[in-house]
# Entry
Amino acid sequence: MKLSRYSREGLKLGFKILDIYRYEDKEVLRGIYRGKVVLVELPRYRESMDLETFRNELRSKLPG
# Structure
């Protein structure tokens, strides 16, 4: 499965994904948002979410 579509969705929100940390039950994305490095914790793996759910999760976790 191509996960680049999630990167494109992040870019639409102004979030450039740098690294992805996968844990047993979640993912943490490290990226650049508004010129700062931020960590965004997702409640589950990206591939288990549709794009709309991913976008909503990311939008709700981004600062400001």
Q: What stands out?
A: The mean pLDDT is 94. Residues 4-61 form a domain with the Metal Transport, Frataxin; Chain A fold (CATH 3.30.920).
